[in-house]
Specification:
The structure is a single chain. This protein folds into three domains: about 180 residues, no CATH class; about 120 residues, no CATH class; about 100 residues, Tumour Suppressor Smad4, CATH 2.60.200. It is built from 13 helices and eleven strands. The longest helix has about 40 residues. The two termini are about 65 Å apart. This is FHA domain-containing protein. It comes from Microbacterium oleivorans.
């Protein structure tokens, strides 16, 4: 865009320095024509290469031939605002206009000084006419390179190529487009739906953390209910024992005796003497019969007292079995809760339990084509360095693997914060842009 400025400045320099015979107008015209043809050739080359790139990503190929629209589509494809293409194009036009005006002013001053005989002033003004526009262009080019690097990083991740391609794209963008479009590179993955609303911000749902809490609550409620039911069954066991005791003699003393045989069952030799003595005293049935045969029933009296410990022992056995059964049920419930479960701590401090083997992370994530059933985890990032669909977590036999979904600011794992270029093993802390997250697995 500045090619036409230099012949004009050369002409001004010749006039200012007092000469006109050193520049051939035909040579200037030929140089301008060559520059024009080279520019047209490079643009056709770039358009053909971008046509191949657009075919790979599902964009209409004809858009590669429209000057601003092709750049717009590339920015959208890289997850950035499409109007960056208009900003760069408009900025180049504005810089060209400003540079031409500034160069013309200094060139006019050089001509005036040259005709006035002040050669030193003419030389200074002439130098300023060349240097000041060049500095303006340099500042704009630095800005354009920064934007282009961000774009190329996202595009190279999407095509699964490394950092060397970013450098190639910055230096020789038509060559980069040719290698990507006509080479074996394959588009891996930013969904086209993500770029449909570049200014949209989705809500950050928190339902993913509520379900596990409810499950744990219900599990604890179930265990407490089972323990309370076992306690209630144990509480109702003694009345059955007491109900069997009144089947023995109706005397209160005989009813009190079964309470003692419980602990006495440990020593089977102790019961015989006490029942013989206690029964001999109350059983003296003087009102019933006067014959001395009353001592004879004293011998059968211990017989009914002896069976009393047997029912108590028999009743204690089922109670133990019921408690064992309840213990088995409780252990079954607890074993389900002890299963390993991974969780993700977000930058705001909240934790999300990973309920699926795949999860998509981002400010407003969308499921990818190779993981349509993935768990969507919005990342509440105040620095806005997290892309809308930034990374994919996948559980494998080796552990959790993370992949960069062509994000703008990249994914970094490990203590040395190595940038992810493909599926990488991740555990503990990692970064999405400047946002720090932490992956932990309990169990």
């Amino acid at each position: 865009m500045t090619a036409h400025i230099w012949p004009q400045q050369d002409a001004v320099a010749t006039i200012a320095l007092g000469g006109s015979g050193g520049i051939d107008p035909g040579a200037l015209a030929a140089a301008s024509l060559v520059q024009l043809l080279v520019g047209i050739g490079v643009y056709v080359w770039l358009a053909l290469a971008l046509t191949a790139v657009f075919r790979k990503v599902g964009v209409a190929p004809w858009k590669a031939w429209v000057p601003v629209l092709n750049g717009w589509e590339l920015f959208v494809l890289g997850g950035m605002r499409g109007w960056w293409a208009a900003v760069l194009t408009g900025g180049a036009i504005l810089v060209a206009i400003v540079g031409t005006i500034v160069g013309g002013l200094f060139a006019g001053a050089a001509v005036t000084a040259g005709f006035g005989g002040d050669a030193a002033s003419a030389a200074g003004a002439l130098a300023a006419a060349a240097v000041v526009p060049a500095l303006i262009w340099l500042a704009f080019l630095v800005f354009a390179v920064v934007v282009q690097v961000r774009l190329l990083r996202a595009l190279c991740r999407g095509f699964g190529v490394g950092t060397a391609y970013v450098v190639l794209g910055v230096i020789l963008f038509p060559v980069w487009a040719s290698v990507i479009g006509w080479g074996s590179a394959r588009w891996l993955g930013r969904p086209t739906e993500q770029a449909s609303g570049p200014f949209g911000e989705g809500p950050t749902p928190g339902a993913s953390t509520a379900a596990p809490v409810d499950t744990a609550t219900r599990a604890s409620s179930a265990s407490s209910a089972s323990s309370s039911s076992s306690a209630s069954s144990g509480a109702f066991a003694p009345p059955t024992a007491f109900a069997a005791v009144p089947a023995a003699p109706a005397d209160l003393a005989a009813a009190d005796q079964p309470a003692d045989p419980g602990p006495v069952t440990a020593s089977p030799w102790a019961p015989p003497p006490p029942p013989a003595e206690t029964v001999a005293e109350p059983v003296a049935p003087l009102p019933w019969t006067a014959p001395p045969a009353s001592p004879a029933p004293a011998s059968p009296a211990p017989a009914p007292a002896a069976p009393a410990p047997a029912p108590v022992a028999a009743r204690s056995a089922p109670a133990g079995l019921e408690e064992d059964a309840q213990d088995v049920d409780e252990r079954t419930v607890l074993a389900a809760r002890r299963a390993p479960q991974a969780s993700l701590r977000l930058p705001a401090g909240t934790s999300v339990v990973l309920t699926s083997d795949t999860a998509v992370l981002g400010r407003n994530p969308v499921a990818t084509a190779d993981a349509p059933d993935a768990q969507l985890i919005p990342v509440d990032d105040t620095t806005r360095t997290v892309s809308k669909t930034h990374a994919l977590l996948r559980r494998t036999s080796e552990g959790w693997m993370i992949s960069d979904l062509a994000s703008t600011n990249g994914v970094f794992v490990g203590e040395d914060e190595a940038e992810v270029s493909g599926p990488t093993r991740v555990t503990g802390a990692f970064h999405l842009g400047d946002a720090e997250l932490h992956l932990s697995e309990d169990g």
